Amino acid sequence: MTDKLFAAQILTPSQSITSGDGRFNLILQEDGNLVLYRVRDHHALWSSGTNGQDIKRAAMQGDGNFVLYHTDGRPSWATNTNGKNGSFLILQNDGNLVIYWPQDPVWASGTVQ
Q: What residues does the Bulb-type lectin domain cover (predicted)?
């Protein structure tokens, strides 16, 4: 498992990334919601709020934006971090989901544990 998504990498329903220490998991659920869980008690720390939508993929784009897309290609949710070419998404060991560009955080879920 990986703890990062780089440009052009995606998650499809039921795929996930896990923090390096295995304590946190980010999954694109079948119901369309992207959810960050604390593994030990399966407690949801953050979500995209897109449950019930027909989300096909979560994409870390080359322009630095992390976007959830409907099956018809329309965007549903985004971090609005475009213009940051070379950014990457990481699920840190402290439970925070962060986009870095290149070394500076430009977006975070705010879920430090």
A: 2-112
